[in-house]
Amino acid sequence: MTTERTLVLVKPDGVSRGLTGAILARVEAKGYRLAALEQLTPGRELLAEHYAEHEGKPFYEPLLEFMASGPVVAAIFEGERVIEAFRSLAGATDPTVAAPGTIRGDFGRDWGLKVQQNLVHGSDSPESAEREIAIWFSA
Ligand code: RTP
Ligand code: MG
């Protein structure tokens, strides 16, 4: 089996609430290797590329505004089936109903805002992972 890579983002809500370490620790503790790490406040151009598939959806503008609102931590994790594994660790998109034991289920809630603030992003396929890693780690 070939080793996979995934892009994990700790979104601005996760960073500002001081949850970066707790979130990354869960992925490391499950056994995946942290291969790269950076913190940046993303600009609109980077976010438009990252979220191209959502352009035109009702939550698109609020999503970009939220993601540009403060520092984001971007990480690359490596290991067999890490893409699937991280999606499972993250839990459902809506943090209100995400299962307890998941990152979103344990740390997230609905804040009554225009977009789901759900702490993390994880690539959803090998193709997305390579595309997203190139966007966030271009240097
Ligand atoms: P992600 O891409 O961030 O890992 O999350 P996901 O696959 O679970 O969710 P996706 O459908 O790709 O949506 C991307 C992000 O947009 C925000 N969102 N808000 N109705 C809403 O308010 C809504 N729907 C989506 C979330 O931040 C979601 O993670
Ligand atoms: Mg997605």
From TrEMBL:
Residues 3-139 form the Nucleoside diphosphate kinase-like domain. Homotetramer. One of its GO terms (cellular component) is cytoplasm. InterPro entries: NDK-like_dom, NDK-like_dom_sf, Nucleoside_diP_kinase, Nucleoside_diP_kinase_AS. Major role in the synthesis of nucleoside triphosphates other than ATP. The ATP gamma phosphate is transferred to the NDP beta phosphate via a ping-pong mechanism, using a phosphorylated active-site intermediate. It comes from the Bacteria. Keywords: ATP-binding, Cytoplasm, Kinase, Magnesium, Metal-binding, Nucleotide metabolism, Nucleotide-binding, Phosphoprotein, Transferase. Its EC number is 2.7.4.6. GO terms for molecular function: ATP binding; metal ion binding; nucleoside diphosphate kinase activity. HAMAP family: NDP_kinase. It catalyses: a ribonucleoside 5'-diphosphate + ATP = a ribonucleoside 5'-triphosphate + ADP; a 2'-deoxyribonucleoside 5'-diphosphate + ATP = a 2'-deoxyribonucleoside 5'-triphosphate + ADP. This is Nucleoside diphosphate kinase. ATP binds at K11, F59, R87, T93, R104, N118. The active site is at H121. Its cofactor is Mg(2+). One of its GO terms (biological process) is CTP biosynthetic process.
